[in-house]
Amino acid sequence: MHFSSCLCALLVALVYQVSGMDTVIGLYGETIEVPCNNGAPKPKDLFMTKWKYDDGDLLTQLKDQDASVIATDKYKDRVSMAENSSLLIAAATLKDEKTFTCMVVAGADISEYPVKLLIHKAPTGVEITALATELEIGKPTQLGQCRTSDANPAASITWFKNKKPLVADGKGIIISSNVKVDEVTGLTTTSSTLQYTAEKGDTAALFTCGALNTLSSPVSFTVTYPTERISLHVISKGPLMEGANMTLKCKADGNPPPTSFNFHILGKVVKVENSDSYTVTDVTRESTGEYKCSIIDNAKMEDSKNITINYLDMSLSPSGKVMKSFGEGLTLTLQTHASGDLKVSWTKDNGKLDSSPKFDKLTYSDSGKYEVVVTMGALIKKASFELVVEGVPVIRRVAKRRSEDGQHKVLTCEAEGSPKPTVAWSVNGTSADESPYVNGKITHKLTIVPTVNLTVVCTVSNEHGQDTRTINVSTLFEEVRMDKQDSSDEGDTTKLVVGVIVGLLLATVVVGLAYWLYMKKSKQGSWKTGEKEDGSTEESKKLEEKIEEKLEENSQKVEV
């Protein structure tokens, strides 16, 4: 009693201060913390803290003492005080939505901090019920009802189409909502009904509804609408060519689509039921033309397509294996007939040729496998023949040379012919080497060591005949001796030629001098003796002719 009287007297002497009201939101079923003075630190001269609400006190705490629960109602076992003087309320319900006040006594002041508590609860789930079986274009239809329950405050439902919110416009989109409150828990159940007028693009649309951050499972609907247009399609594997099968497919844009059609096949009408396709088998070039399809109950609704059947004909002459003789001609004939532009390419032994082959005069190099490829788009045709050019072998060249070490003679025999000729020598050698047989040509080399002068014969032969050539081969010793003699003879010959030339020149000078002296004496005698000039003139002429003949002869010898 004494403590109570003192406390009452103290409270009378204190000054009351009431602050503005704060709001705290707690979650349904959870423990809620209601802060005192918005969580401000305790004053240094704190004497007492007390929590209360409109119906009475809840608990008090004196400085440096534990909190004491005063409440005797539903809060008796649900309230406690935190270290920072906050009020803790366990298992929150909607009935806890009220104002709680924290009273703080410090020094000569009494301060009160009222806090409004709100309890929120998210809806337990969102689902769409009462779904429509189908939607018809242009006709308002109740699409479904979206429902969410056990929420506080009442949930607001939004409808979505393909994740985009739908906004009611009172025409194509009409949304109506309804909220019910549970009498026991106070929680709400919200339902929303969507009336929707479908469009053709809604065939694959996904509809959902949501409340807060919760969405329903998406739903879709069959949208029905009449056929307005049909189209004819051609289905085939690769290009349409003779011998292939061609499938015609008639597509309608209605939903559900028609199940029966008329196919017009080159003027002939074929009725197809419970299918939208018709197959024309083993088409030919005569199958080219106009094709149509139409709806059975509406012949005016049709579509047509001009279809071309591609074809490619090709023949090549000759074909197979062709045997020809060397030097003959071969006529090559390629005939084509096609529905479009062609591309022709040739290969020989898998190597590409720049142009079509021509065989005016066959050679062994013309032998090989020839293939022609004719293409038109994706169509490809091929033909080939194997050309074999044969003939009597002919030796083109025989040659000899000394080996690099100077100890052997290397004989070479080059020949061509087909089939491959066999090469034989009239002598045996230390080693033989044969080149690859290419384009009818072969080269055979034989290494020998001749001890005497030889006449060697090279013989080439095949099933068509043979050819031979000879070559003279001297011994290695004779060639060495002849080389030395040739060198000495060349020096002697040079000296002899120089001597002859000098001698002839000297002789010419002597003859000329003699002639000059003779002429001089003859003229002097004529003047002194008075001899007949005619006789001396004749003799002079004869002498001059002899001297000229002699000079000319000497000149020719010098030239030689």
UniProtKB/TrEMBL annotation:
Transmembrane segments: 496-518
One cellular component (GO) term of this entry: plasma membrane
Segments of this protein annotated with the region Disordered: 522-560
Membrane-related topology note: Single-pass type I membrane protein
Ranges in a coiled coil: none
Predominant cellular place of this UniProt entry's protein: membrane
Domain Ig-like: 29-104, 123-220, 226-308, 393-474
SMART domains per UniProt: IG, IGc2
Keyword DNA damage listed: no
Compartments, record wording: Cell membrane; Cell projection, Axon; Cell projection, Dendrite
Pfam families, A to Z: C2-set_2, ig, Ig_3
Biological processes, Gene Ontology terms: adaptive immune response; cell adhesion
InterPro entries documented for this protein: CD80_C2-set, Ig-like_dom, Ig-like_dom_sf, Ig-like_fold, Ig_sub, Ig_sub2, Immunoglobulin_dom, Surface_Rcpt/Adhesion_Mol
Compositional bias ranges of the Basic and acidic residues kind: 529-560
UniProt keyword annotations, A-Z: Adaptive immunity, Cell adhesion, Cell membrane, Cell projection, Disulfide bond, Glycoprotein, Immunity, Immunoglobulin domain, Membrane, Repeat, Signal, Transmembrane, Transmembrane helix
Region forming the signal peptide: 1-20
The organism's place on the tree of life at top rank: Eukaryota
PROSITE patterns documented for this protein: IG_LIKE
UniProt name for this protein: CD166 antigen homolog A isoform X1
Organism: Salmo salar (Atlantic salmon)
